[in-house]
Description:
This protein is an all-alpha fold. Helix content is 76%, strand content 0%. The chain has helices at residues 3-9, 16-36, 42-64, 70-89. The radius of gyration is 15 Å and the shape is flat. The relative contact order is 0.12.
Amino acid sequence: MQLWVLLGSLDNFEGKILGNLFSLHIDQLSEYIAALQPSIPEASLKSRATLLEGILEGLMVVLSTKEPDGAETDRVVHLTYRQCLAIAVGEPS
Length: 93
């Protein structure tokens, strides 16, 4: 069942509810990125945080559909961590 569709239907799919939900996550990720990269421009900060939110949200959905395989899940999580860290601390654009 796609709960995002149900949540989206609450505001006639205008995206306000989902936008508010994700903006909270993006703001939190922005704070963490800014702590790692204090001189990053605001536009780059928000772009990176938005990209990370998409990656993490999608990963939660995908991993929840797999049967738990400790070694494989650990490997995917480790690779994701490395990629997310690279996005967060990469050179400001």
